[in-house]
Amino acid sequence: ADDGYRLWLKYDLIKDTGKRAAYARSTQFIVLNSTNPALKTAAGELQTGLQGLVGKPVPIVASAGGKTGGIVLTINPNLPSINDEGYQITSQKTSLSIAGKTGSGVLYGVFALLRQLKTGQSIDQLSLTSSPKIQHRMLNHWDNPDGSIERGYAGQSLWKWYELPERIDPRYRDYARANASIGINGTVVNNVNASSRFLTAEYLQKVAALANVFRPYGIKIYLSVYFPAPKTIGGLKTADPLDPDVNKWWADKANEIYKFIPDFGGFLVKANSEGQPGPQDYGRNHADGANMLARALAPHKGIVIWRAFVYKADPNADRFKAAYDEFKPLDGQFEKNVIVQVKNGPIDFQPREPFSPIFGTMPQTPLGMEFQITQEYLGFSTHLVYEAPIFKECLDSDTYAGGQGSTVAKVIDGSLHDYQLTVMAGVANTGSDRNWTGHPLAQANWYAFGRLAWDHTLSSESIATEWVKMTLTAEPQSVKTVTDLLLKSREIYVNYNTPLGLSRPWTGVHFAPEPWQNRSSRPDWTAVYYHRADSVGLGFDRTAKGSQALLQYRPQVQRQWNNPETCPLPYLLWFHHVPWTKKLSTDRTLWDELCTRFYAGADSVGGLQKQWTSVKKDIDPETFADVAGRLATQQKEAIWWRDAWVLYLQEFSRLPIPAPYKKPD
Ligand code: GCW
């Protein structure tokens, strides 16, 4: 019954008796000869997993004593061809070995072996070697001290600050297990719109209690910091990053934090962004701010993750260009323990965006990736959007920074510019809902994020298949159907929500369609700012004759997008203001193509519902009903999106809805 809670860590008895017997032969005992905490965690996880899958007790012993048929866990700092967190799994006859350079490496190896079993693969001739491609694979929680979550759609925060540090909710450990099982090794527990309260001794004790639970799972804790904390909780008159007292305050604060949490990861900072204070309030720049914090953390080996999500309330500026304009001139000016964290697209987690033009233009400053797992612009927790294709689309984009093949993935894994620090962060979609993510299938997004942070070369499809087998069913036909449904879901959403490169980050809760919204405290927080509908056409001209944002890309990229005749349709309205009657490559006019996409998108949700119904017999009943209900809501809301856009845009186009879609009056 508690299917949703167990996520992809479901170690139920394997039904296929042949397979089970084969697995049983080489999993009779676990050899553990160390007190390393992560290694002990690894042994415990392996024991739990095997006992469930194979259905018999698996003792943990100190030595094999000459027996074969067991699994030996070892730390060997001299292992070749893996990095510190990598693992090596090998089988010799009926015995298995899982080795790593560290306890965490072995832990990841254990989860990899359990994955082999759970997905029904043979373990007889195993030789698996894997190392994470990104150093810091992190979740960013936008959780507030009062338990609310900014852009959270799965209940309240997991962290019960009012109970900590005394009471440790068992769920903290389950959270750590889930993350470790997909390779996540860091978590920022509080919102980037940060409260300085987290830096007080009272809260540091609470944070330390969480860190103690996460540590044996190889997960480090980080905090978002409020830049003016020296004023708000330190009693200073300024937070100027060049002021000696302010520097001393942060250095002292860092010392205090590391007394509580000796392996504290570092700070995440949102500064001079959307009203948050920052170094610019004192006439300083982002590097001045980041470097001050970096110097405070450096003696403890902590890092500063400084966000590049900045833009000004200027009606004549193009928000698209802001991050590049502010950060590129600072390349090379950051301390070694600073990394700049960039959202995948230049605007804000839209259903489809081109990759941010910063990637590839700061060779001397490590750039990290920020993806959003929570579905702020993707229908919250009621619409189904499998996000791996969104992440992959960005990672696989070619920046041409060092010639052809200079993908965004190679920028952020450090290989292109030889970065010494690498980060991939995902804004978490977890909350206090029993099934963690609200929509049961949204668990796949948390999973896919972790798997891609470990290895960005994995395909969206292979991750989907793996997740379905781990989580929902092993029946081949249903695995195929659910995988297919996941893979389609993003494009369907784009079609009824923002086809052809429309975007919609306007003010408010970001759920309902409101393309008509034209008033706000900021011009760039209106809908009309983004879509630019008028009597001529639709879309934002970012070419040389428009905002010139396109010029921030390398010439090869510009060439892909700067000609409206050849610009791929998914990106068309990102870069061009296109006349309503203009013929597109589909042989339809812009207007007809828009209507076609809105209608086809909304109709396709019905297809998703049918596919889901067809797998009913293989899915846990509670999960089945939950998803079915959400798909029905999605169906209703897709029509609502379609109608809102089409009727609004029709006021400008003054054209009829094309024949196949027009309803009789
Ligand atoms: O996407 C926007 C959100 C804000 C968020 C901001 C950011 C945490 O609407 O809620 O604030 O981005 O990333 O800083």
Label the structural class.
alpha/beta
When the domains are counted, the total is 3
CATH topology-level fold name of the largest domain: TIM Barrel
Tell me the overall shape: globular
- C-alpha-based Rg, rounded: 26 Å
CATH superfamily of the largest domain: Glycosidases
Small-molecule binders? 4-O-methyl-beta-D-glucopyranuronic acid
- Which regions are unreliable across 5 or more consecutive residues at pLDDT < 50? none
Instruction: State mean pLDDT (0 to 100 scale).
Output: 96
Q: Count of DSSP E strands?
A: 16
User: Termini distance?
Assistant: 48 Å
Helical residue percent band: 25-40%
Q: In CATH, what is the class of the largest domain?
A: Alpha Beta
Number of discrete helical segments = 19
Question: Could you explain the architecture of this structure?
Answer:
The longest helix has 33 residues, at 621-653. Strand 11, helix 9 and strand 12 (338-343) form a beta-alpha-beta unit. The protein has 3 domains: 17-130, 2-Layer Sandwich (Chitobiase, domain 2); 136-459, Alpha-Beta Barrel (TIM Barrel), CATH 3.20.20.80; 494-540 and 577-653, Alpha-d-glucuronidase, C-terminal Domain (Alpha-Beta Complex), CATH 3.90.1330. It has 665 residues and is an alpha/beta fold. Strands 7-8-9-10-11-12-13-14 form an 8-stranded parallel beta barrel. The chain has 19 helices and 16 strands. The structure holds 4-O-methyl-beta-D-glucopyranuronic acid. The site of 4-O-methyl-beta-D-glucopyranuronic acid has 11 residues, from loops.
